[in-house]
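Lecture notes, unit on protein representations.

Consider one protein chain, 301 amino acids long.
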Amino acid sequence: MTGTLPRGIGRRSLLAGVAALGAGALGATAGCSRVDISGATDGGHLLDDLRSKGTVRMGIASEPPYASINSKGELTGEAPAVAKTIFQRLGVRHFEPVPVEFGALVPGLHSFQYDVIVAGMFINKARCQAVLFSDPDYESKDSFLVAKGNPHKIKDYPDVAKRGLRMGTGIGYAEIDYAVGNGVHKGDIQTYGDQIAGMEALEAGRIDCFAGTALTMIEALKTGQHPKVEMTPPFTPKVDGKLQRDGGGYGFRIGETKLRDAFNRELHKMKKSGELLRIAEPYGFTEEFMTDLTAKELCKK
């Protein structure tokens, strides 16, 4: 890991979603054993257990600004900040981070390595087969990294297609499908390990723009190492005229509905009061990333 941005942030992509599901829902674990994900009954008892122990274990995958361990060894990021506030109000005062690779988050939850996934994980139909999600606390937007001044006047994927521009993005990113769905030729799309590599390609003139999620773009630019690169305003992609809305939330084991429902109640209070935005703002989140989406809606995608 180098700099402030982790290598390979394709974990928000469609391919990463399938990989995470495959490892968890299909029970693939070390030694080829299978994990029972049928879940708790009667709403589960984890909330009572956590209150009794006073500690919740949080599974995180290092990716600023969602969640990470900083240089001082401290847990930081938007997702832990929100989760800590909610769990404190649920009577759980102490927090134990359990860092794992993104692809191991779902299997680790099933094997009781931690109690909740706190990683800004995208909610989609595939993952919902293996994870009980809270409602999302943020909505993802896309953006482009472009040369200073945005010489090609890029605002969205149709602009890339109409002008025959060369686009970069991450390996397996959902942005590939968004671009192709808007007429960008696959041969005009180059893939890179992360936004840092994308900025280097942009500065070298190998691509005309780099597409990804706006929040990771914001984080990448914080390094200050690429002054010739800027970011376009965040936007929600469309494919065939349909908005491609995505959101991330907190993952619980299947059946733990009592804990998930209690968590959701506190989350919605924070949304209504504006507290959620106040907590998220130091991590680059703004009003446009707040959302009224629900896990039920996203689980149908």
